[in-house]
Request: fold
Amino acid sequence: MKIIKYILAISAIILINGCASTIPKEALALTSSSLEERQLQSRIYEDVTEQQVLSAGVHIFQDLGAKITETETDLGLIVGEKDRDAVEAGQVATVIFAALLGVNAAYDTNQKIKFSLVTTPVKLGQDDKRWIARLTIQRLVWNSHNQLSKIEAVKDEEVYQAFFEKMNKALFLETNS
Reply:
């Protein structure tokens, strides 16, 4: 009886190992577009504290109309979100035309924009006060059937530039007041 249990246990291990797949090395490699996105989303700030960077981020999120949904200052994380209308005239016209043909089509009705700001220390020496601030923005869109129809990362360079310009101003005012 013990031998049967051992054989079953060994068979199960072999079966599990045989089914396990390994992650290809290229799956973990950053592509050139990933690196470009990271550069777009990140800025380095010097001679400031992490608290100053996070505080400025909170104020900017709120100025943009977002509500802060999560703060983990020990981890250097702030998350905010904002609800917006997603109705586009072209989609509505298409749905009306489809309805005339008897097709029950959907159009985008509302969206949630999620912002997250993460800070990471840059250590060059003992007293350095350098922080990388990385902003990511996601867009979730629901349609007229109340289904999640899109989840996408916002990659608009102007949006990130505008945010970091506001960050520069806020940190300048905070450090010089």
User: Anything to note?
Assistant: The chain has one domain: 41-175. The domain at 41-175 is CATH 3.30.530 (Alpha-D-Glucose-1,6-Bisphosphate; Chain A, domain 4). Residues 70 and 130 are 24 Å apart (CA to CA). Strands lie at 42-46, 67-72, 77-85, 108-121, 130-143, 148-153.
